[in-house]
Amino acid sequence: QMEISLLLLEVKENALDLNSSQLSGSIPREIGQLSSLVILDLNNNELRGSIPPEIGMLSSLVYLDLNNNQLRGSIPPEIGQLSSLAYLDLNNNRLSGVIPPEIGQLAALRRLYLDNNKLSGTIPTEISQLCSLEYLQLDNNRISGSIPSEISLLSSLLHLYLYNNQLSGNIPPEITQLSSLVYLDLSNNHLSGCIPPELTQLSSLGYLCEGKVDINKF
Fold first, then answer.
1. Which of 24, 66, 107, 122 is the S-S candidate for 46 at Cβ 3.0 to 4.6 Å?
2. Strand, helix or coil for residue 127
């Protein structure tokens, strides 16, 4: 195992790829000084501690992958400053707290993976501002409240995974406006009411899992 010390590493072609490198320790705050960085891939290591707020200083960043580590604490709201970010993967960590509404500022974001953490609170309505988003994975968390009707504004969305949470209330009928949706999984929540009949008529939809009757109370 190696302690991570990014400032001693040569960043090549504006990319820092240290995935599967047996790194341990925490992500240093000095990472914010790598302002020309376009790709930061630290996935599949043993990184601990929290995501430093200085990560929001990486103004050129397009790709950020921290998945499959042991990161704790909350997602820093400063992450919303990454205006060029297209890919954000924080899945399979131990992150807690709420999804920061500042994520809605990531106008270029196409893929958002926050699954397999300990996130709580509600789905922020600001997520609906991510008009380029194609993949949204929030499954296997502790997210509660209702599915916001504003989710229907994600006109580019292909895959939506909300299963294994604590979501309640009805499936918003507006979800049927997601005309590009290919995959939808809402299983293992506390949803109730009727399945919008238009949902089964979405021509693009190849997979629909709304859950078992004893878990989702349809």
1. 24
2. helix
Using an 8 Å Cβ cutoff, are 71 and 96 in contact? no
pLDDT means per 10 residues in the chain (218 residues)? Answer: 50 82 90 91 95 96 98 98 98 98 98 98 98 98 97 96 96 92 94 84 80 48
Give the burial string for 17-38 (b: 16+ CB within 10 Å, else e).
Answer: bbeebebeeebbeebbebeebe
pLDDT in tens, 160-185: 999 999 999 999 999 999 999 999 99
Of 173, 62, 172, 42, nearest to 108 by C-alpha is: 62
Distance CA(217)–CA(151), nearest Å, equals: 21
Q: At residue 74, what is the residue type?
A: S
* DSSP assignment string, 23-80: EESB--GGGGG-TT--EEE--SS--BSPPPGGGGG-TT--EEE--SS---SPPPGGGG
